[in-house]
Amino acid sequence: MKLSILIPTYNQDCSKLVKDLATQCQQSALEYEILVMDDGSSDQEAVQANRRLVDMPHCSLFEFLHNQGRSFVRNRLVQRSMGDYLLFVDSDAVVTCPDYIANYLQYLPTKAVIYGGILHPDSLPSYRQSLRYMYEKHCEPMFTAENRNRRPYQNLRTFNVLLPREVALSYPFNENIRHYGYEDTLLGKNLERDGIQVLHIDNPLVNGDIETNSRFLQKTEESLRTLKQFEDELRGSSALIEYYDKLKEKHLTGLMSFVYRLLHIPMRLWLLSPWPSFKVLQFYKLGYYCSL
């Protein structure tokens, strides 16, 4: 049995992550490969750091000159891999558990997709990162393995997920999704449609790159535009679409859009402050979505 660890990266030095994963694979006496694919990074320090990974055994690096999109890169990683099982790991992940790889191996062989979960730092890195940190810490208690397994397909993320090779090849990521967000949600919906099991376990990686408030709000808006673009395909897998549809049934989306346009500047200022509000963020997201 061979494991392929697939790491898409963009402007991220993932050399420590790769070394930590390689060490655990070696300790498990596992046949493995680690494939890193750079999606047109502009940060030359990160590019040069990642290029040194080719000196490591069982590690390969692929680079695109221009940004191709998250789904495109993930599909190309799958196509280049040789493993029986494929482990997707985001390049900003931090390995904190010494048995991370071994914890996955105890579930093999399997036909299921296995998601290990995500955690965030125990303390706020900086007030400039308070929005993403607040949001994730508010949601974190709801995303234990027990809770995720109650809605396994809706809670699937590509941050830290293991797939049998035949599943990954049969269910490629939708390359029509060119911008940020929801390629993993759509994957989960396709797996649910065909009855492919998704199992959630407690084997998390830590998100080591909490975005600044402005960057996180920008990515949130980008993901909402993606959600609107693929609204029909994602209906039934998004709580926000459910709220939107309820407002639409009552002919209230226009009012919500008006209130958003009236208040979006003070709401943005609040969300970009050191003390953002989860409820304001949720209202902002629904209002932004209604205004699209």
Question: Would you give an account of this structure?
Answer:
This protein is of the alpha/beta class and 292 residues long. The chain folds into two domains: 209 residues, Alpha-Beta Complex (Spore Coat Polysaccharide Biosynthesis Protein SpsA, Chain A), CATH 3.90.550; 77 residues, no CATH class. The protein is 46% helix and 16% strand. The chain has 13 helices and ten strands. Strands 3-2-1-4-8-6-9 form a seven-stranded mixed β-sheet, sandwiched between helices. The model has no long low-confidence stretch (mean pLDDT 96).
Task: For this entry, give a set of tags.
single chain, 292 residues, 2 domains, 7-stranded mixed beta sheet, 13 helices, 16% strand
Can I get a quick summary?
With 292 residues, the chain is α/β, with parallel strands linked by helices. It is 46% helix and 16% strand.
What is this structure's SSE topology?
Layout lengths: L1 E8 L5 H13 L3 E9 L4 H8 L7 E6 L5 H11 L4 E5 L3 E2 L5 H6 L7 E3 L2 E2 L10 H10 L5 H4 L11 E5 H6 L12 H11 L4 E3 L4 E3 L5 H17 L1 H4 L4 H11 L3 H19 L6 H14 L1
Parallel strand pairs: 1-2, 1-4, 2-3, 6-9, 7-10
Antiparallel strand pairs: 4-8, 5-10, 6-8
Helix pairs in contact: 12-13
Major beta-sheet overview: 7 strands, mixed
The helicity comes to 40-55%
Q: What strand order characterises the main sheet?
A: 3-2-1-4-8-6-9
Corresponding CATH architecture of the largest domain = Alpha-Beta Complex
Q: Return the domain count.
A: 2
| Gap between N and C termini | 48 Å
Structural class, judged by helices and strands? alpha/beta
Name of the CATH homologous superfamily of the largest domain = Spore Coat Polysaccharide Biosynthesis Protein SpsA, Chain A
